[in-house]
Description:
The protein has helices at 13-24, 49-58, 61-65, 105-117, 241-244, 251-261, 266-269, 301-304, 313-330, 334-363, 370-383, 385-396, and strands at residues 5-9, 28-33, 44-47, 69-71, 73-78, 83-88, 100-104, 122-125, 127-135, 138-145, 148-154, 156-159, 173-178, 181-189, 201-207, 211-221, 225-237, 279-281, 284-288, 292-293, 296-298. The chain is α+β, with helices and mostly antiparallel strands. It has two domains: 5-69 and 99-178 and 283-365, 3-Layer(bba) Sandwich (FAD/NAD(P)-binding domain), CATH 3.50.50.60; 181-280, no CATH class. The protein has a seven-stranded mixed β-sheet. A six-stranded mixed β-sheet has the order 8-2-1-12-21-20, with helices on one face. A three-stranded antiparallel β-sheet has the order 3-7-4. The protein starts with a strand and ends in a 7-residue tail after the last helix. The model has no long low-confidence stretch (mean pLDDT 95). The site of flavin-adenine dinucleotide has 28 residues, from helix 1, strand 2, strand 9, helix 8 and helix 9.
Amino acid sequence: MNNQQIAVIGAGTAGLALATLLGRQGHTVTVIERAKALTTVGAGILLQPSGVGVLSEIGCLDHMLQYGHRVDALYGWTQSGRTIMQVKYAHLNEERDIFGLGIHRTALCHVLGTALAEVPHKRWFGCEVKSIAQNGNTTQVTFHEDGKEHCEEFDAVIVANGSASQLRPQSLVRYDRQYPWGAMWLIRPLTDQVASLNKPHLQQRYAGSAVMLGILPTGCIPHETESPLVSMFWSVPVASMPAWQSDNFDLGGWKSQVENLWPEVSPLISGIKSARELLPATYRDVIMSRWGVGRIGVIGDAAHAMSPQLGQGANMALLDASALARAVDVSSDWDGVWERFHSERSGSIRFYQGMSRLLTPLFQSSIPGAGFVRDLALPVSHLIPWLRRQMAETVSGRKQKWL
Ligand SMILES: Cc1cc2nc3c(=O)[nH]c(=O)nc-3n(C[C@H](O)[C@H](O)[C@H](O)COP(=O)(O)OP(=O)(O)OC[C@H]3O[C@@H](n4cnc5c(N)ncnc54)[C@H](O)[C@@H]3O)c2cc1C
């Protein structure tokens, strides 16, 4: 399609990547973001090899490598040290170097924002979009800036405003709920005291399905810290999160539990004075029948939020952006865009949504026996080369269908 006026709502992973790719095609892109600036929020994100491929396509992989921490494998152990999960990207048996990246959300947005800055576009930050309405061949976006309401028209609008989006067309939403479990997270410098955790791996420890501790090398934050960071995730039911904000929280009891589960993590948590230093993260499970109708499309977490068990959130946001930009490039109208986007992305999105829903209770639930089933079944997959490869394909974000 020739020059279209396109609004991209949300300057997260999906929105920044898409705006860059559409801007390069010559479209007039306006990025509308609620936050006033891309500030330091969030913790570690695991970017899988397929997402790393999109960074390469955008031309910002070398920049991202300045901040990210290479990840080659995912490991999970029981408290007694038995290996339950062992997925190496090397199991893909490819000649080229395949790796993931542990990266801080701020670094990811900074690098994508720098790529976008090189492309002509409009940037309306500090503007919260309240509604989108389609009117013939135009789409009206109503937003608030400093308490004032504004309304602007575009040829099309792409909703990329994250998992809690209220802007995705409700007629396409089939399912939208919060997962009952989430995580408390902490980010700390990767000092010599925790040198044993400094590995190119996502590492997890489990005790049944109700206890899980994760460690992800997270690289550094642009203009803030040159020294590498590490993110720690502690699985909790969402219902228990308010207790972490209370003065009566048993911090000592929690620290002992962590130290028993994984003694090497002790120096990371020893300096914690209040449970409020850990921040809560919740996840949604969102299913849509399609991701575009008329002149409105939806990508990233807004389109298919899922639990982070397979580490696909930012990855799928990048894959969506790449696929949608391609669809816009080769289609003659917006119906054609959604058709192409759907046919390229639906297999992968359906697979990862199904897999996340299937696996999450094995890692985060109080279902009796769920951890036992996981501890019995997953190690078998390391012994069978075909299964080993399927696991690596799955984690790397490249699966397009179940078989
Ligand atoms: C503040 C924050 C912290 C996060 N921290 C982590 C983390 O530590 N680890 C992790 O794995 N994942 C984290 N995530 C999620 C992760 O970034 C996403 O799963 C992934 O990058 C997919 O990106 P996305 O672009 O679809 O959505 P998001 O990254 O959620 O981006 C959505 C953007 O839309 C903006 N927005 C929302 N509503 C409106 C509106 N009405 N009008 C205008 N703008 C709007 C938001 O401010 C945000 O910038 C975080 C997300 C956010 C927003």
